[in-house]
Predict the 3D structure of the following.
Amino acid sequence: MLEFLWSDWRIATLAAIAVAAVAGLAFASWTPRGAVTSSEALLSMGTALAVGVIAGLLTGSRWSMLLAPAAFAVAFELGRLGATGPTVDGFHLGSVYGVIAVVVGRLFLALLVVAPMALGALYGVWISHRMGRMATTPPGIPGWIVMGVLTVGLAGLAVTVARPGSTAPIVGDDGEPLPGSIAELTNVTIGGHDQALMVRGTSVDNPVLLHLAGGPGGTDLGAMRDDVGLEQHFVVVTWDQRGTGKSYAALDPVETLTVDQMVDDTIEVTNYLRQRFDEEKIYMVGNSWGTFLGVLAAEQRPDLYHAYVGTGQMVSAPETDLMFYEDALTWAERTGDAGLSATLRRTGPPPYENLLDYEPSVGREHDWNPYSELDTNKEMPFNAFVSENSLMDRVNAMRGLLDTFAVLYPQLQDVDLRAQAPRLEIPVYLVIGAHEARGRAVLADEWFDMLEAPSKSLTVFEHSGHRPSFEEPAEFVSVMTEVRDATYSDR
């Protein structure tokens, strides 16, 4: 067979293209979003290497380094045309978020395939030469140098990809794991999908606290690891919701990813924790998008919760967005930022069909709403760089923030807690940053004032904005211990 293919370079080239294209179509069917898990990434690298070897062996030409990846990429993109989300449905280079989508959705994933395929092609050419194909040019010293560098680099990448996330044990004064403590990363089937939980606490006998991250699409594993104060008083459970961070693989099918389903998932996670830790009720803390989930879950099943604690409380996304637009435009025109002003006037006020149109106002929030205590290291993507996250988890943290947001955020146009949750049957505690943006703070105050609950309390953190529990963690621990002392009756 090889002799026949080698007899005509055109036949050999077509065969190499066909092999790479078939591989691209297979990858599109298998992983339409590209590799999502570490195992998928490693298998992608290995398969791409093999495809490259075959292409190089068939053609005997170093041009196969370009030919095979190009054929693969075209077939892969055509094969996954039905995939949805900013990281997969096109190239959006007109915005920062769009560029990020290209980097994490295409360029990084291309690295997992293109580089191994190119390296494989070089090895294939060398094998072809060793098999006696006279028309084949041996690598030579420059070629061997390139092959060596690529081999070492890809081996290092593979080792990095393979390294799993882990969470450090909670230790006592002797440096040994504290008896009765818990520190684990686990996957639980929620809503029919594997979803990740980080569970940490100095004692499994402490009350359970479920943290609901913002977004939609955000992960807070890194932010929760920045301060361990809550772990001294609670079993702290940080949930990577469906389509986020370590649970990004659960994004599809997007047709079943709805706000109602996310609320059901919240209740299912709650019941899992109640059963596992033998607690009649747990505490629920939400931030931003997580406050929608928290309030709606508490409204449906108040019997499951000691109390609800909202930080960066959201009430109505459309009204928040409109105020963000107004404040960003006012700031742009006052400070002479003609580019931002022109962009905002061109897009007009929200809501938008293209979710990337929210970027000019939302992405510039720290410009038009600055405060001296702001520390962006507590926000994405910086807080994803913790040992709990593998390399793929870190990439997926950004992919989820874009793709999951694109699915869920339009659905929030119909959510207004003033209409849907004017009363909760459990104690409610709000923690608001003094520097919170007007578009959130005004509505949170309005909802809190009208809310009927057995008891309610609003605390303002003077040095915080939208994420007060992370910006002033010691103060938040103090609030939560007061909440526990006032409401925990399972002791």
